[in-house]
Amino acid sequence: MELQELKEMWSEYDKKLDKSLQLNMQMLRKMNFDKAGFKLKMLFIYKIAEMTIFMYLISWFSTYAFKYFTTPRFGIPALVIDLFVLLGFVSDLRQISIIIQVQMENYNDAIAPLQKKLETLKVGIVNHVKYSYFVIPFYPLMMILGGKIFYNVDFFDPQFKNYLVTNVIIGLALIPVVILPFWQLSKKEITPGIVKNFLQCTGWRSINSAKDFLSEIEKFEQEG
Amino acid sequence: MRQQAQKDQFIYLIRQNKKLIFKVCNAYCHDPEDRKDLVQEVIIQLWRSFDKYNSKYKLSTWMYRIALNTAISHYRADRKRKSATIPIDDNLMDFADENDSKELDSKVILLYNFINQFDELNKALMILYLDNNSYKDIAEVLGITETNAATKIGRLKQQLKQQFENV
């Protein structure tokens, strides 16, 4: 078979479709176009809500860090937590910007750039979850602040020394626990199977597929 | 009143270009049930973009962009998307005669088998090429340069030629 034959077959197919393909007009008229929602709407609303909370937390922790500027044992934990929230906010901002671009284009954009935006968004969402694991080992900082804010307890007080040291040790021990899924999530193939099953729900598969498609698009866009 | 006129105009447009929608959906969706959803989704996305149609592009370019973007996203999306579509019991597009559909089947299966061996983007390129679009139009739909489109088509032709020799 020659390529020309394929083209002829396609044009024959086109002609037949012309004759035989019919549109269910009644159904088309019945379709409620106005109710068709934007697919990323829920994600957009969720991100806006998350950003609002993050903004409140940033201003709150910044004020708190500034207030305890001269008391570093409270100022520094507030600043570190503030930094984590700020990173989350920036990540949300990037995702929101892509959602808005896609929403404005509404599939009207050329294939390669639009698909690239959608896949970048997928990667961003999974990375957002992935990086949030990093907060876990820092939980003693939240404990220090929580104790001070809610119970007016100073965990640096000598009577809490053992308690604080134990929690810092637990926090440090959690670092490999956090690094393991982070490291596994960056891999193409996860072993052992138990870890793989555990990580399925974190979007590992979708990030890999998104990354593969992104490199496919980039290859496709390359000249020659 | 104005919206009704706009809707009528849109329905006319869909009617005129139903083949384009059908061919794209058929290339990206093999499951007939899933295809019904995809056809519906493409029409909805076309309606949503109807206001934004930029007359500097050809109408077919605009339609290909939306149909192909929707089909590729649908193809790549997870199963969650099923819940996002409105359930339909009927086919939006169908054949007038059952025999027409059967007659089409044997040749079309062969045709689509060739197209299906390509990845999502090259499949789009192939559909656009078979539909006799110019390199300029193909480049506009895909968002690549005209030279790149021509090079890629040349390469696909070579690839297909080799495969045809084995048929």
Labels describing this entry:
heterodimer; A: 224 residues; mainly alpha; 9 helices; elongated; B: 167 residues; Rna Polymerase Sigma Factor, Chain: A; Arc Repressor Mutant, subunit A; 74% helix
Protein described:
The complex is a heterodimer of chains A (224) and B (167). With 224 residues, chain A is mainly alpha-helical. Chain A has a domain at 38-175. Chain A has helices spanning 3-20, 25-30, 41-67, 72-105, 111-132, 139-151, 161-185, 193-199, 204-221; one strand spanning 21-23. Chain A starts with a helix and ends with a helix. The mean pLDDT of chain A is 84. Chain B has 167 residues and is mostly helical. Chain B has two domains: 1-94, Rna Polymerase Sigma Factor, Chain: A; 98-167, Arc Repressor Mutant, subunit A, CATH 1.10.10. Chain B has nine helices and one strand, in the order αααααβαααα. In chain B, helix 2 packs parallel to helix 4 (59-76). Chain B is globular and about 60 Å long. Chain B starts with a helix and ends with a helix. Residues 78-86 of chain B have low confidence and may be disordered. Chains A and B meet through helix 1, strand 1, helix 2, helix 5 and helix 9 of A and helix 1, helix 2, helix 3, helix 4 and strand 1 of B. Strand 1 of chain A pairs antiparallel with strand 1 of chain B, so a sheet runs across the interface.
